[in-house]
């Protein structure tokens, strides 16, 4: 069942965490736009600073008065987290990026922990950690004062806790079966007691929802319920469907729906506390009366204003469609994310003079959110492999990463006409990485002994051909990260160098 945590695990996760901190904090305060935020930092960083300047108290926090594109279009928690860094370090690059860097480090650590939990293997967890360290999307998302990395951490942690719940409840069923308690549990099967891991999942989903709207609640709720149904069937419950509906679904709804909703409401506490929040008095000032939602007039003013705000945000997002004429040069659709076909430019400085270092005298500094090809180009193959081993070999290790990937990907297909960008795919890559690590664990067991003596001598052990293939792949991942590092860190490089690493026209 559960493999105990050992000193080897502690050493491995510590090393991975330290490497994550080094790579994320390296050059963290650069670049800027003459000391000001760059790219979409220009929306979220000032909103966080607004919260610092007009906060009520440390518990309530403050409100966002910067309207961005007419109104603030995301829930408050991400800006509240940015405000924490700005409170300590001021309105400086370090102030508005330190929290994203810390969360970016934690994303790498929890990708390791998720792989360790689903595989029960330290080696597979190390593979996942190393691959995550070398992904350009996870790196760049941690180096700018934006919201995505906050949501990604909460999602990966939620996957880790739901995997813990699935393992724990399986053990409870097994223990009850060994103790002979199932025979007296009745036709619906036993009650399983309070499930803290599932409750923690609800908390994390609520935090994720409070950063950006997400459909993960539905996916994780279905995963939990169907896992319960599977276990009731497996252990011979007479009425497994009724047992699941009566004994598993109600507490699942409480943990995975009610708890997130309550936390989402809590994230708006400063909005309710302020008398000057946007739309706070939209009922009394007549704004609602002239809107397309007049039914809101029947509600109390705080509720009416809060719902009007949400409906306005939903209308804003719904209007950003390609068919309505909203086009952007870095727009990309979900199917392009699967191979990192269209990265997104975060920072650009061209026509820089570098005649002392370059013969042609022209250099540039560019930072892209760019998926490391050695990782992202395996997305479709590894998903197909995961579905194959799940359905044909009953390899349940892949369930959580596959469902979590689907939760982050499929909703975008339903809204494919919307204006989209590659940073929406940030939440996908930790689960791709876990699946790659699981696949590499299988590959490592394949093949006979390597017959090249110099390879075994170099490795210090006798390798299998599968193990050698894994080593070669990890080396390729690290080499890819270093090769494309100029467009991940924004090094000044000659234009000719830049052209040589931009392999595909869609990358430019």
From TrEMBL:
Q: In which pathway does it act?
A: Protein modification; protein glycosylation
Q: Which chain regions cross the lipid bilayer? A: 94-115, 122-140, 146-163, 199-223, 252-272, 366-391, 397-414, 421-445, 465-484
GO MF terms listed in the record are: dolichyl-phosphate-mannose-protein mannosyltransferase activity
The Enzyme Commission number assigned here is: 2.4.1.-
State what protein this is by name: Polyprenol-phosphate-mannose--protein mannosyltransferase
List the source organism: Corynebacterium jeddahense
| Keywords per UniProt | Cell membrane, Glycosyltransferase, Membrane, Transferase, Transmembrane, Transmembrane helix
Subcellular localization(s) per the UniProt record: Cell membrane; Endomembrane system
Protein's membrane topology = Multi-pass membrane protein
Query: Which domain of life does this protein belong to?
Result: Bacteria
Q: Does the keyword Transmembrane helix apply?
A: yes
Domain Protein O-mannosyl-transferase C-terminal four TM, first and last residues per copy: 305-507
State the similarity comment: Belongs to the glycosyltransferase 39 family.
- Known function: Protein O-mannosyltransferase that catalyzes the transfer of a single mannose residue from a polyprenol phospho-mannosyl lipidic donor to the hydroxyl group of selected serine and threonine residues in acceptor proteins.
From which residue to which does any coiled coil extend? Answer: none
Q: Does the keyword Thylakoid apply?
A: no
Looking at the record, the residues that make up the ArnT-like N-terminal domain are 18-163
């Amino acid at each position: 069942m559960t493999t105990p945590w050992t000193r080897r695990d502690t050493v491995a996760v510590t090393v991975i965490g330290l490497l994550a901190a080094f790579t994320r904090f390296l050059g963290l305060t650069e670049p800027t736009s003459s000391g000001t935020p760059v790219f979409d930092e220009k929306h979220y960083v000032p909103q966080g600073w607004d919260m610092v300047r007009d906060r009520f108290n440390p518990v309530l926090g403050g409100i966002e008065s910067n309207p961005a594109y007419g109104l603030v279009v995301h829930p408050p928690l991400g800006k509240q987290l940015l405000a924490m860094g700005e409170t300590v370090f001021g309105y400086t690059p370090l102030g508005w990026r330190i929290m994203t860097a810390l969360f970016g480090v934690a994303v790498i650590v929890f990708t390791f922990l998720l792989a360790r939990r689903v595989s029960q293997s330290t080696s597979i967890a190390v593979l996942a950690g190393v691959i995550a360290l070398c992904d350009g999307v996870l790196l760049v998302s941690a180096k700018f004062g934006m919201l995505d990395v906050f949501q990604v951490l909460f999602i990966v942690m939620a996957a880790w806790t739901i995997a813990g719940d699935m393992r724990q409840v399986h053990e409870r069923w097994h223990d009850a079966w060994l103790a002979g308690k199932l025979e007296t549990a009745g036709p619906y099967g036993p009650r399983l007691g309070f499930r803290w891991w599932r409750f923690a999942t609800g908390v994390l989903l609520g935090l994720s929802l409070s950063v950006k709207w997400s459909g993960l609640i539905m996916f994780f709720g279905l995963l939990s319920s169907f896992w319960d149904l599977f276990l009731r069937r497996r252990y011979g419950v007479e009425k497994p469907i009724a047992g699941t509906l009566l004994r598993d679904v109600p507490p699942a709804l409480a943990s995975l729906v009610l708890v997130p909703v309550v936390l989402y409401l809590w994230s708006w506490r400063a909005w309710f506390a302020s008398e000057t929040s946007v739309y706070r008095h939209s009922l009394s000032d007549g704004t609602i009366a002239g809107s397309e939602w007049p039914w809101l007039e029947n509600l109390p003013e705080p509720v009416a204003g809060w719902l009007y705000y949400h409906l306005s945000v939903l209308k804003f997002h719904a209007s950003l469609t390609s068919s309505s004429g909203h086009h952007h040069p870095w727009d990309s659709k979900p199917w392009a994310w699967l191979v990192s076909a269209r990265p997104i430019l975060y920072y650009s400085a061209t026509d820089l003079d570098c005649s002392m270092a370059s013969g042609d005298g022209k250099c540039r500094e560019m930072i892209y959110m760019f998926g490391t090809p050695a990782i992202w180009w395996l997305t479709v193959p590894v998903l197909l492999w995961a579905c194959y081993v799940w359905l044909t070999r009953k390899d349940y290790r892949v369930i959580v990463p596959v469902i979590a990937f689907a939760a982050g990907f499929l909703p975008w297909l339903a809204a494919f006409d919307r204006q989209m960008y590659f940073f929406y795919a940030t939440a996908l890559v930790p689960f791709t990485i876990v699946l790659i690590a699981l696949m590499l664990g299988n590959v490592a067991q394949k093949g006979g002994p390597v017959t090249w003596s110099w390879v075994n001598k170099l490795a210090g052990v006798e390798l299998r051909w599968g193990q050698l293939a894994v080593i070669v792949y990890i080396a390729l991942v690290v080499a890819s990260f270093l090769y494309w590092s100029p467009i991940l860190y924004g090094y000044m490089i000659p234009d000719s160098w830049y052209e040589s690493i931009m392999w595909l026209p869609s990358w430019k």
